Each structure stands twice: as structure tokens, then as C-alpha cells.
Amino acid sequence: MTSRTSRTSLALAASAGACALALGAAAPALAAEGDDTAMVSVFHGVPGLTVDVYANGDELLGDFEPGTVTDPQSLDAGTYDIQLFEAGQGPDGTPAVEKEIEVPAGANATIAAHLSADGKPRLTAFVNDVSRVDAGTSRLTVRHVAAAPAVDVRAGGQPVFEGLENPKEDTTVVDAGTVPADVVLAGTDTVAIGPADLDLKEGTGTVVYAWGSAEDENLALATQTLGGMESAPNGVHAGGNGAAVASNSSDQWVAWAAAGGTAALAGALMVRRAAGRRG
């Protein structure tokens, strides 16, 4: 009998190409980090599948756990041979995902591994909006990447986003401050996740990922904070590059540290890219 983990691995492999195409297609709309670089984060939202990540045959991340958002890294634009193995099975085992991924210049994006609405693993590339916001405000984005029906997202008991479906996102600019929020089944008061206070800081963007499986009763949230969006007074450039600070939350939205080793991810990728150019 095929295990749930094996089915997850096979389904992730089948969807890898779609992620690369989506990220490449979104590149023109992304905020530039540099002429030849991109800012890329990865969110792991597939319950029950811890993975090891390899690039060009080198291990970059070990024991990458569900619910984790990596810190963003500035990468050379180009093509990388990426492999994801079930933890402990690489590099001689069969990868859950193996794909040459094109990282386009000027990108600021997050690649999410998650479940579809009917529980099938998939990959989705999201564009991170890092444009400026007005003084005193913050950008809030919610991404529905859970095996669950459509949801409403409420702040202070009032819907902010309605009828959000997997794998869609919605965004708005709101007053900065602490917002009591929860996620409910669309059109109802049935709470799926929360409630909890969400701290929306001025000049930042908060991305909330609703992930997990309603059937398996493991719905949870992870958050990603995008900085450098402060308004520039009198036409002076405010600085910042949309760099994100990753954090992760349980269904009570309690932050904990993102998985270690993400600095090694960027460094090893750049070394491998440089070696490829010299070869």
C-alpha cells in the first residue's frame, strides 16, 4: 500500500514545473533587488513531510519542517537544479521534487509548497508586493494554501477578505496597529483558525499563510513580514529593498524562530552558480 508520505512526494514532483513557470511569468511585476539578482523565500506548508533540500547535488537545508518560512536571500538570477528529498533519503534516494528552477532577475517572491483545497500537494509562486505604503499604514496579505473550503478573514469581528479560496491571495492597506483577527468558514461565524492579535507595524507588509488540512484538524498559520515600505517624505528615497523577516505561527499565532541554515542556502547557490560559469 502506498503511504500518505509517498503520495505526497509524487504529487509534489508532478507540480514542480508549474511553479517554475508561475515564478517566471510573474517576474516583470516584481520589485527589483538588483540588475542580476532576486529575493526569494520558501514556505513549507505540507503537513507531515520534512524534507532535505539540495542544489546542484549539494545539501543546502536539512530537516526543513512544515510551517517554516525561510528568510529571503538575494540570489544571482539564473537556473538552479533543485532537489527535495524526504528527510534522510537523499541524495541517493528518489527526490520528492527535482526541477531546474529559473530565478528571474528583479524578483521578490515566495515559493510555497502546500496542499490544494482537496488535499493534493502542489507548488505555488506568489509575488510579494513591496511597494511603498502611506505613513501610519501597513499592508496585509492573506494567502489561502490549506486543504479547506473558502474562508473569510475578519479583523475586530468584521470581514476584511471574503470568500478567499485556495490557492488565492488578497491584500489591502490598513491602519498600523494591533488587530484582533480570526479565520472563519466563508459566510459563517465558524472559526477555523484563531482568534489572535496580529501586530501590523507601520511601513511593513504582513503576509499570513493559512495552511494545513481541515480534515486532519491541523490548520495553522505562518506569517512573513516584508519591510522597507515606509513612505519617503519630500521625495527622499526611503531605502529598503523589501527584505522579509520570516516567522511562523501555530493556530494560536505564537511566533517562533525560522529554520536555521538559510544563509547557507544563498551562499551555496551562489558558489555553485559561479562554478558553473567558470566551467
Automatic annotation (TrEMBL):
Keyword set includes Iron: no
Signal peptide: 1-31
Name of the molecule in the record: DUF4397 domain-containing protein
Keywords: Signal
Pfam families found in the cross-reference section: DUF4397
Organism of origin: Streptomyces prasinopilosus
Metal-binding keyword on record: no
Source taxon at top rank: Bacteria
All copies of domain DUF4397, residue ranges: 38-154
